[in-house]
Amino acid sequence: MFHIAEIRGREPYDPSRAPDGPFVVFEDGREGGALLFDAPEEIIVAHEADEVAEAFARMEAASGRGLYLAGYAGYELGYALERKFLGGPLPRARTPLLLFGAFRTPRQYEWRNAASLAAGDPSIDIALTPAWTLADYTRRFDACREFIYAGDVYQINLTFPLYGRYEGEATALYRALRKRQPVAYGGVVALGEERIVSLSPEVFFDVCDGVIRARPMKGTARRGYVPNEDMARAALLTQDEKSRAENLMIVDLLRNDLSRLSEVGSVRVTDLFTVETYPTLHQMTSGIEAKLRPGVTLADLFAGLFPCGSVTGAPKIRAMEIIRDLECAPRGVYCGSLGLIAPDGAIRFNVAIRTLTLFPDGELVCNVGSAVVADSRAREEYEECLIKAKFLTGALTSSV
Length: 400
Fold this sequence. Notes:
Layout: E1 23-28, E2 33-38, E3 42-46, H1 52-64, E4 68-73, H2 77-81, E5 98-103, E6 107-109, E7 129-130, H3 134-149, E8 155-165, H4 170-180, E9 185-190, E10 195-200, E11 203-208, E12 211-214, E13 217-222, H5 227-239, H6 241-259, E14 268-277, E15 281-291, H7 298-305, E16 313-314, H8 316-326, E17 337-341, E18 347-350, E19 355-358, E20 363-372, H9 378-387
Antiparallel strand pairs: 1-2, 1-9, 2-6, 3-5, 4-5, 4-17, 7-8, 8-16, 8-20, 9-10, 10-19, 11-12, 11-18, 12-15, 13-15, 14-15, 17-18, 19-20
């Protein structure tokens, strides 16, 4: 899907400067290219829960007119889609619940020619300050463990923001960071006042020819300093009972989510506990696929799947309740999803981890998190969270 070589009708973009006006750049590292969506014919936005249904209807109508859709869904959209949360207070992020542009044919975009940072490219380091110290984190962690021991949940994905400053071009920052850590499902969304920079290694779901695929990522290990140590850490990750349990819980959750949208008997697990290696860490993944029922709409897909279970915990709805009550700020685009919808029905969305939000005043927000299960340890989980920010910086300031 979205094969770069098949895009016709527009000249490739010269990325020596940032695009003018609203745009989205989305990259699929598996196919070796990126697409630029610019000059939107329409921008579709939902800030409130009661605006979501109309936004999805406008997206369906735009797709029916032969337009591409590109943009993001914020994590808090999940509360707006779940009947249990409606009627009560919903977390309000600084970013919209949904923000998509409707575009004509995209153009090829070559990152190797993109505008560079003024200094420090590609070894950019942005100092980040975590919102929580280890003591702050431990209090929430202990509360999560109590919910687990009480039988409310099996797993809770506990996250928190880190804050920094950046006032340059979002495309330049993305270019610099992707040199440090190549990305499978990344990009930049610049459709509103904020800029979203996502370097996610995790696909949420993709749809091609009526088949939907998901690849949850759960289980992390630090890279080793020498090859033998590095290989040993990857091997230990495949055998680690805690990581396997975390991963399997989310596989089961997503199998259940997909079953509500798919033909009976078509859901299957393609592989389990596969380790993927990135410059700063190893991650455990698994694959699931199914045949979609005829007539499933965009609203159906998001109502059935969003947010991804790998960023909530299990069971999903109870985990989302606990997250809402324990975390110190709404997640916004982090743990939501960036993606594309083609006129022919092909769809691809990432899980918006390793995702930065850049605000007009220069504030940068980078969130991190990890899965808490019964045998988790607070210090180890906190350190895992900070490891996940290494793609951006080696400088973290926090009193622990």
